[in-house]
Specification:
CATH topology of the largest domain: Metallo-beta-lactamase, Chain A
Shape: elongated
Radius of gyration: 24 Å
Structural class: alpha/beta
Helix content: 25-40%
Largest sheet: 7 strands, mixed
Number of strands: 22
CATH superfamily of the largest domain: Ribonuclease Z/Hydroxyacylglutathione hydrolase-like
Number of helices: 12
Bound molecules: flavin mononucleotide
Strand order of the largest sheet: 1-2-7-8-9-10-11
Number of domains: 2
CATH architecture of the largest domain: 4-Layer Sandwich
Length: 396
């Protein structure tokens, strides 16, 4: 079997990106990201998805290494986000007879992005494509996380080409399948990818899981990260819990602070949480923390405590940004508590109360509001807030 052959006639031809610093211009990539693409070889050859345009020549080399001068007959486009579709135009130039397979929404987007309107094959829910010896079928999973998204299913081997579903950040350091890599390295990266990229779409992900969950899957080929075989139960369970927004017992304390006074409240609250028996506590100073890590932790844990100074009669901007991101992700439930500070006219605590009302998160207890500097007088109120939060975290 060739080095890239995952299963007979199915090859990994994706690439690693270790140079882009921010995915979507937003989310950090401390250990890179892979753009996965797969060749399915029957009597005819299909390529499933492409890679980010800047890495197109490497994709073409990888394809050539597997099939030499043979032609690709079909490109199946599961997902149109440009990190997977932006090599389509170059691929078409290289293989002019290539037919592009996608659903109606996909084909419309291919026209809009790449000006391609000919040599296409439109498929819908349950359509099949016979490669001669290998039959692929297509199943729509809209809004995971774009409207045109679909998965490709190869029933004979139980392989689902799942697009971004079940994907992770993190380049593939040598290994391709989960038995060739250390899976532990990827769980936090899967959470971070989910929270940043897919997080808003819990309901469509649940629908997709119900649809795909009915298939006897033995291999998941996502568009980012390892190919899943051994770890499928864990991967599906993680996606299920993330898309139900189910947090594990644990508390995130996220705060902003200019001069350290609100920070001292945060430190006190975290210490009191630990004293009360909470073991999983993650404290983030929002001016410095990586926003993708904060989002990951909020998705992971069931409790969130937020602190903010008043800043020009509003929340401190990094706190405001976090709360907006949480609102955008429609997280239905978290144990929530908040604290804040001001010097002459308070606003931060009021804004956080309004946030909890918009989210329909019933706060665990009343807020702690501090006027001017931190002093020992703040210890008791911080302890009371932490006690109420700890009781909720430990109740499970
Ligand atoms: C640029 C700026 C704007 C501020 N705006 C307000 C305000 O509108 N109302 C208020 O009561 N305090 C205001 N403050 C005072 C801060 O709220 C106060 O310094 C802060 O709560 C102390 O917390 P910290 O030490 O954690 O930064 C402002 C401070 C700065 C530096």
């Amino acid at each position: 079997m060739a080095i890239t052959e995952i299963l007979p006639g199915i090859h990994y031809v994706g690439v690693n990106d270790r140079t882009t610093t921010r995915f979507e211009g937003l989310w950090s990539l401390p250990s890179g990201v892979s753009y996965n693409s797969y060749l399915v070889i029957g009597e005819k050859i299909a390529l499933i998805d492409t890679v980010e345009e800047a890495f197109g020549s490497r994709l073409f080399e990888n394809i050539r290494e597997v099939i030499g001068e043979r032609k690709i007959d079909y490109l199946v486009v599961n997902h149109m986000e440009p990190d997977h579709s932006s090599s389509i135009a170059a691929l078409r130039l290289r293989y002019p007879d290539l037919r592009i397979v996608g659903n109606a929404k996909t084909l419309q987007m291919i026209g809009g992005y790449y000006g391609i309107g000919t040599g296409t094959v439109e498929v819908g829910e349950g359509s099949t494509l016979d490669l001669g010896g290998k039959v692929l079928s297509f199943h729509l999973i809209p809004m995971v996380h774009w409207p045109e998204t679909m998965v490709t299913w190869y029933a004979d081997e139980g392989v689902v080409f799942s697009g971004d579903a079940f994907g992770t950040f993190g380049a593939l350091d040598g290994g391709i399948t989960d038995s060739q890599v250390e899976p532990e390295r990827y769980w936090d990266e899967m959470r971070r990818y989910y929270a940043c990229i897919v997080g808003k779409y819990g309901v469509p992900v649940q629908k997709a899981l119900q649809k795909v969950g009915g298939l006897p899957i033995r291999t998941i080929c996502p568009t980012h990260g390892p190919v899943w075989q051994r770890e499928i139960p864990r991967v599906v369970d993680l996606y299920d819990r993330l898309s139900r927004y189910e947090g594990e017992p644990g508390a995130v304390v996220a705060y902003g602070s200019m001069y350290g006074n609100t920070e001292q409240m945060a430190e006190r609250i975290a210490r009191e949480l630990a004293e009360a028996g909470v073991r999983r506590i993650r404290v983030h100073n929002l001016s410095y923390a990586d926003p993708s890590v904060v989002l990951r932790d909020v998705f992971r844990y069931d409790t969130l405590v937020v602190g903010s100074p008043t800043y020009n009669a509003e929340l401190f901007p990094p706190v405001e940004q976090l709360l907006r991101r949480l609102e955008a992700r429609c997280i239905p439930q978290r144990n929530f508590a908040f604290f804040g500070s001001f010097t002459w006219a308070a606003a931060a605590v009021r804004r956080m109360k309004e946030f909890s009302e918009r989210m329909k998160w019933e706060p665990v207890c009343g807020p702690v509001e501090m006027k001017q500097g931190y002093s020992p007088a703040m210890i008791d109120p911080c302890r009371s807030l932490a006690a109420a939060v700890a009781e909720r975290v430990l109740r499970k």
